[in-house]
Amino acid sequence: MTTPNMIHLKDYRPPAFLVDFVDLVFELKETDTRVKSTLTLRRNPAAAPGDAATRPPLVLDGRDMALVSVLMDGRPLATEDFQVDERSLTLPDPPDALTLEITTRIQPQENRSLEGLYRSDGMFCTQCEAEGFRKITYFPDRPDVMAAYTVTLIADRSKYPVLLSNGNRVDAGELSDGRHWVKWEDPFKKPCYLFALVAGDLFCLKDTFRTKSGRDVRLRIYVEHENRDKCDYAMQALKKAMAWDEKTFGLEYDLDDYMIVAVNDFNMGAMENKGLNIFNSKFVLARQDTATDTDFWNIDRVIAHEYFHNWTGNRVTLRNWFQLSLKEGLTVFRDQEFTADITSRPVKRISDVRTLRSFQFPEDAGPMAHPVRPSAYIKMDNFYTVTVYEKGAEVIRMIHRILGPEDFRKGMDLYFERHDGQAVTIEDFVGAMADASGRDLGQFMLWYAQAGTPVVTAARAYDPVRKTYTLTFSQFCPPTPDAAEKAPMHIPVAVGLIAPDGGDFPLQLSGEKTPGPTTRVLELRKADESFTFVNVPAPPVPSILRGFSAPVKLRAGCSDAEVRFRFAHDSDPFNRWDAGQTLFAKVILERAAEIRAGRPPVMDDALVAAFRQTLLDETEDRAFIAHAVTLPGEPELATLMSESDLIDPDAVHQARRFVIQTLAQTLRDDFETVFERNRDTGPYRVDPVSVGRRSLKNAALAYLGGLETPEAIQRLFSEFEAADNMTDTMAALTILSHIPCDERIQAIDRFYERWRHDVLVLDKWFSIQAAAQLSDTPATVRKLLDHPAFSIRNPNKVRALVGVFCSLNPWCFHSPTGEGYALLADQVAALDGFNPMIAARMAGMFNHWKKYEPVRRNLMKAQLERIKALPNLSGNVYEIVSKALA
């Protein structure tokens, strides 16, 4: 194949032409759709003008469509007046101001990429981020071209009674042939990636929200008719998000209507199109019998995220796609804060850091490592990553921690005041924060420019005579594919000092006159830096990186006894949980080393005692305890093993299983007590207390099920049968799915028979089997690919079956036979022909092939080379595979 071109941040140039107004008319039909686009354009005064001979042409992006006609200022253009190829429509010498009328034909029913305009379950819908609009009509498809839109939709009324687009509905009417039309107008200029339309036969849930200024906003959630009883929770989530954004950031919604549409076929989670958010149905539809507690919380999170984009992404948007984290990192931070406020802040922080460590840290250490603001890409689709989103949110969180809540809010206010209605850069955001607070954030910008996860090492010294305690920090960022040498970062490190009695010492730095709070934020700026605390009456145990104040790897040199002490006493919930995870990971990896050496593993009695103390702690939030007694997962353990050795999935799996079963046998009575104590005593509710009780109860059930005795198996089956909500159903079924027994097969079959007509619940059925830690799981997954309920054209199904198998079941995926690798490569090859975006996501699961022992490493390399050699390989997959092999 021809090597795709690389696009570089340094090559950015302002657009040659701006578009002031867009008028779109869609004639929607099943066979083909006709699109008439009328654009009012003018040369951009900010672009290099050139002379008459060198003025740039007008280039409009376009793909996969048939051009019907082009008119300029009302005059049809002859074929020699423009050029058309498979990527663009070009006018070589247009006037400085012009009106273009372009008519095209497209075939949404044939569009399997799920970009642009396509059909899903009988409805028309769109997905235009990042570059899908160019598959609808010819247009300068870049985020810094912002225009006002009017949109008219024409369709058969009987088939498509609902016709939606961005903005406010301004007119409608009937046609004599049974069709009808609706006209929409968006008064706010937007980039074309925020364009949306939906046409279908849909149920509408209606509500209103009164803003702080007294305006009533019409809220609408559109779903297929059979799902009309599954969208009440989503509506309440939307109203919570709107109220929170007004209270926390003073941001009010600006249109008369806010609409959400649930779609089954969607490449992403959701899309923040101005006023018309299109959602993957899994983040809208929920009832207690179809959705778990996690599903409900995810609905809160994702609906809030897309709503918050109205200001951080829509009102203020991106100058170019390299700035993606400007909207996504900032909005993830906002949705994390919202979720923390409505659930449990410590548990939310733990959950977010689990994601970061399990997925983003490995990305930083792999072939696709890139800065939060990438410097180059082949396909922008490949950079919707955990680095841009989750690490980007951590960068915003660090600014919040350095400035404090009050100055951070001032910075946000200044950012909107300066840039409302503009397409801007990360420098504009950080500049607003610096100007509002008076802080120098110049060095901090390195977080956006340097890839990799910094390693912070802490050394400590206590002087019993002077009663001083000194912490000396050093920082180092390992090489990544883009750079070997890294400059020191600006890193906020939140620190506490724990007294021998378990309390916190007040902290007073050398040179300060009075003691301060028990947690202080130290700002590292140099490669090596020391901080001395005075009036420390006894040697403390340091609690460093409280609240995970920076996305770094900490090497504090603490003894096992000190870590156990923090696990029992640390007042910072995150660091208390983290101490437990550190202990568990160390013990499991030590057991893995014993297994690899052929020695029988032996359990650490001190760890069992510390575990029991936490399990039975009735003073803590139940959800926190559930997290605290959950061992690190196999993917996270593999990442830790790779820091010092080649990954051995068999040893990791056996060691973790040994620790679980030993804890279950030793503390069986305690798990029984916790399970019974936390049973639901009333109707099902989704609130922090109820969710916490269920999570701890089911954590205890997981250990009891790990005994795998006939009694344990029967108990799991009974719990599965008796469950009155999907949380408990899935908990019992998940545990049972790992045990080779008749009850497992019966439960899986009964689950399918009950939910065979619910497409979202069937995703859980696929995932349960894909995650089963059984030797025949690769063969089971291969068989399920041919199941009538599976469709490779549906991204949710691919993620539920193939994605879960490859990313969350490493022991089975990394079978030494290589059958898991062959299965993944087969699916990448099949997907690449019609949905390169999802194909590239799947191919990325091979990224860490070099970190495995030689047999598996060679098997994965062979599959990567096989994929790379495919004819007509997409740029999406080529970028992933070529970097992995480099």
From TrEMBL:
Q: Answer yes or no on keyword Nucleotidyltransferase.
A: no
The processes (GO biological process) annotated in the record are: proteolysis
Signal peptide residues on this chain, from the entry's feature table: none
Q: State the Gene Ontology terms under molecular function.
A: alanyl aminopeptidase activity; metallopeptidase activity; zinc ion binding
Question: Domain Aminopeptidase N-like N-terminal, which positions?
Answer: 93-194
Peptidase M1 alanyl aminopeptidase C-terminal domain mapped to chain residues = 561-886
**UniProtKB keywords:** Aminopeptidase, Hydrolase, Metal-binding, Metalloprotease, Protease, Zinc
Residues annotated as domain Peptidase M1 membrane alanine aminopeptidase: 233-445
Which cofactors, by name?
A: Zn(2+)
Entry's EC annotation: 3.4.11.2
Q: Which residues form the Peptidase M1 alanyl aminopeptidase Ig-like fold domain?
A: 452-555
- Superkingdom in the source lineage: Bacteria
Keyword Hydrolase included in the entry's annotation: yes
- Classification via InterPro entries: Aminopeptidase_N-like_N, Aminopeptidase_N-like_N_sf, PepN_Ig-like_sf, Peptidase_M1, Peptidase_M1_dom, Peptidase_M1_pepN, Peptidase_M1_pepN_C, Peptidase_M1_pepN_C_sf
Q: Which reaction does it catalyse?
A: Release of an N-terminal amino acid, Xaa-|-Yaa- from a peptide, amide or arylamide. Xaa is preferably Ala, but may be most amino acids including Pro (slow action). When a terminal hydrophobic residue is followed by a prolyl residue, the two may be released as an intact Xaa-Pro dipeptide
Family, according to the entry, reads as follows: Belongs to the peptidase M1 family.
Question: PANTHER family from the xrefs?
Answer: PUROMYCIN-SENSITIVE AMINOPEPTIDASE
Role played: Aminopeptidase N is involved in the degradation of intracellular peptides generated by protein breakdown during normal growth as well as in response to nutrient starvation.
Q: What is this protein called?
A: Aminopeptidase N
Q: Which organism is it from?
A: Desulfococcus multivorans DSM 2059
Q: What is the lineage of its organism?
A: Bacteria, Pseudomonadati, Thermodesulfobacteriota, Desulfobacteria, Desulfobacterales
